Automatic annotation (TrEMBL):
Substrate binds at S54, D141, N153. Residues 279-361 form the PUA domain. ATP binds at K13, S173, D174. Gene3D superfamilies: Acetylglutamate kinase-like (3.40.1160.10), PUA domain (2.30.130.10). This is Glutamate 5-kinase. It is found in: Cytoplasm. Pathway: Amino-acid biosynthesis; L-proline biosynthesis; L-glutamate 5-semialdehyde from L-glutamate: step 1/2. The keyword ATP-binding applies. Catalyzes the transfer of a phosphate group to glutamate to form L-glutamate 5-phosphate. The keyword Amino-acid biosynthesis applies. GO terms for molecular function: glutamate 5-kinase activity.
Length: 370
């Protein structure tokens, strides 16, 4: 079974019901302080931690004095705008005593559907993580309308986990795992310790949530599990409400783990290899050798560029003899790539007029042919 200490990059999703007291609507500050201690413990082991936290609507509705039932879209957007400041502030305050810097990252469904925006958000998250920051991610509820929103943070958290190549996704919930039926309604329901495959039988066991503050229930958690595990990220559901839920999970607290189907890197490369290419980049002998030994493609090794492609589009990579070496995602447009081909990376800024990335195709975005 997967464990937290085995994972190097961990995404933790915190549901509204954990962060906000159900009756008073107030922030559960003591619980959050204990969670911050868990995050500090993981960071002290050299792990990368990304938090995906719900709670902006629940916090904001209390401040605005809005009713406890389902709000019309405009009101929930207003509540999110008010609550998100408090939400991010609360994490900053809780993690500061551990000398952990936080960053607020608000995303919408479109940020992952549009490849360019996806790559940009990936680069930002990667930079933050590299600087030791703990990103606090939520959906940008204030601007996301129904057609363009996830609406639940389970799938959003899975998307973040896939985007950053995490190897563990932990959903802290109000239930300690996945049961044969909704345990709130069926006292005979039994919990699974581990689920290797999400079969139609498993899917049929997932029901809605009943907490009133949350969205999605088990249905969105299973969708999240499918996304994460297919991309090589193991996922756990565990009860989040006791203090220090991550330490408890590591010490064997009840949970359900969904097994990763693949290594995250392998899954990502398979995804890239299956894309329809939008252009061609032909490279010289030296670059072909460099790619073969796992390096990124630098402008210096590029001979020709073909096609009309944008940043993030997939390109076929051809060797000097015209043989296809593989394919990868371009970090430049066709126009930019043509302008910098054959040049040293250090010259990019002078040629384009702005500082770009050193590689035209980064090795993480490249799948070489077998
Ligand atoms: N098969 C199942 N196993 C466990 N919980 C289930 C199942 N089907 C439905 N549920 C419900 O899903 C709830 C968890 O989802 P949700 O209320 O959305 O919480 P969260 O705030 O963590 O997103 C549980 O409390 C339970 O009522
Ligand atoms: N983005 C919304 C939360 C949506 C959501 O998924 O809520 P939950 O089921 O509590 O994780 C918010 O911050 O209020």
């Amino acid at each position: 079974m997967a464990t937290l200490t085995d994972a190097q990059r961990i995404v933790v999703k915190i549901g509204s019901a954990l962060l906000v007291d159900r009756t008073s609507g107030a922030l559960r500050a003591d619980w959050l302080r204990a969670l911050a201690a868990d995050v500090a413990w993981l960071k002290s082991m050299g792990k990368d931690v990304i938090l995906v936290s719900s709670g902006s609507i629940a916090l904001g509705r209390r401040v605005l004095g809005l009713a406890a039932q389902e709000l019309p879209l405009e009101q929930s957007q207003a509540a999110a705008a008010v609550g998100q400041i408090r939400l991010a502030g609360a994490y900053e305050e809780a993690l500061a005593p551990h000398e952990i810097t936080t960053a607020q990252v608000l995303v919408t469904l479109e940020d992952s559907a549009d490849r360019r925006r996806y790559l940009n958000s990936r680069a930002t998250l990667e930079t933050l993580i590299g600087l030791g920051v703990v990103p606090i991610v939520n959906e940008n509820d204030t601007i996301a309308t129904d057609e363009i929103r996830y609406g639940d943070n389970d799938r959003l958290a899975a998307q973040v986990a896939v985007t950053v190549g995490a190897d563990a996704l932990i959903l802290l919930s109000d239930v300690d795992g996945f049961y044969t039926a909704n345990p709130a309604l069926d006292p005979t329901a039994r919990r699974y310790d581990i689920i290797d495959q999400i079969t139609p039988e498993i899917e049929a066991m997932a029901g809605d949530g009943v907490s009133g503050l949350s969205k999605g229930g088990m249905i969105t958690k299973l969708l999240a599990a499918k996304m994460a595990t297919a991309a090589g990220c193991a996922m756990a559901i565990t009860e989040g409400s006791p203090d220090n839920p991550l330490k408890l999970l590591e010490n064997g607290a009840a949970s359900t783990w969904f097994a990763a189907q693949d290594d995250p890197q392998v899954a990502r490369k398979r995804w890239i290899a299956a894309m329809k290419t939008r252009g061609v980049v032909s490279v010289d002998e030296g670059a072909a050798r460099a790619l073969g030994s796992g390096k990124s493609l630098l402008p210096a090794g590029i001979r020709h560029i073909e096609g009309d492609f944008g940043r993030g589009d997939p390109l076929a990579i051809l060797g000097p003899d015209g043989r296809k070496l593989g394919q990868g995602l371009s970090r430049y447009t066709a126009e930019e790539a043509s302008a910098i081909k054959g040049c040293q990376s250090i010259e990019i800024e002078a040629i384009l007029g702005y500082a770009g990335r050193a590689a035209v195709i980064h090795r993480d975005d490249m799948a070489l042919s077998p």
